[in-house]
Amino acid sequence: MSHSAISLGLGLGGGKSATSSGAPGGGGGGFTNGASVDFDGVDDHATPASTITLSGNKSISFWAYLDVASGYQNFTSPNGTSYGLLANANTTVYCRTGGGVRTFSFGGSPWSAGVWNHWAVTGDGSDLILYINGTAVGGVQVDGDISIAKFCAITGYYFVNGKIDEFACFNSTLSPSDVSTITNAGGASGSKAIDLSGYSPVHWWRMGDINGSSGTTIADQGSGGVAMTLVNSPAYSASVP
Amino acid sequence: MKYVILDADEVDDIVFSEIFETSASTLRYNLAETETVLKYDGAKPRFLYGKDTYTHSEILAILATSAWTPPFVPPDED
Question: Which of A69, A93, A185, A204 fits A104 for a cystine, CB–CB 3.0-4.6 Å?
């Protein structure tokens, strides 16, 4: 048995593949999305090769297909031991910044389990905004630096139970229109994700589309060149947003 | 996938080539750090003989208990 994440033979070489475009400036055409990474909620997680810090103008964008809408699921951690971007069921999201933890509370349920949902966080040095499925939720909070040293868990608990795809970080503040485009321009289920290259991501992990859904290293398709390492063998999946 | 809970003092016996965890340093422990959780597929590794086996849903229920996950403390707003 290999330590490597399970290969389904997907990605550029074959398997289910969605195509879409829509990012400003194009870059589409060659964009395909045929894979995501499935974290088991038990001990699967991932780490960047070096800690990422987003300051000033910043954004994070990703797709998540969570298997449950209960409990705590941590998408990013600034140091591995503290939660960073943490979902408390589908009623509250906490975002830890250099200035403290910001709380986004909402009365409705802007995301559901068992379907792909788009998440985005944007900051401009003053205002921190959380978008779920293209809509700002939980009000405007005070911005601060956001660091990422671990994905999909903190040490010991708050493991993500579900799939993650197209995780990207930007040194720019995505506008509400940008977030709406990233969320909605791709179209139907299976082709929702669009080419993000036009938004000049500093980090962009395609979650199986570049490495043929094989191995434990997810290369960074942004300008930052920080690879992601999958830990404890999360599986690649053909399910995509 | 199948899951097993192992005593922490048995970690040195783990054959990582037969399970899906990456290394001893990436294991998940309970809050008391007396137990860890492993996963495997196919035939049960010999070093896990005698250990109870759980399904994914069963192990998630165990990991959600207070022995493995502490109560959440809301942050102080800054």
Answer: A93
Q: Is the dihedral of CA A57, A46, B64, A115 positive or negative?
A: positive
A88 touches chain B (CB under 8 A): yes
Chain B residues inside the 8 Å CB shell of A159: 28, 63
Q: Alpha carbon of A121 to those of A165, A235, B15: distances in Å?
A: 15, 26, 41
- pLDDT of residue B11 exceeding 70, the answer is yes
Helices (H), chain A: 176-184
Q: Is the ipTM of this complex over 0.90?
A: yes
Using the Cβ of B24 and the Cβ atoms of chain A, whether some distance falls under 8 Å is answered with no
The alpha carbons of chain B give a radius of gyration, in whole angstroms, of 14
pLDDT, tens digit, 9 for 90 and up, residues B50-65:
999 999 999 999 999 9
* Predicted TM-score of the model (pTM): 0.92
Give the three-state DSSP class for A119: strand
Q: What is the pLDDT of residue A7?
A: 39
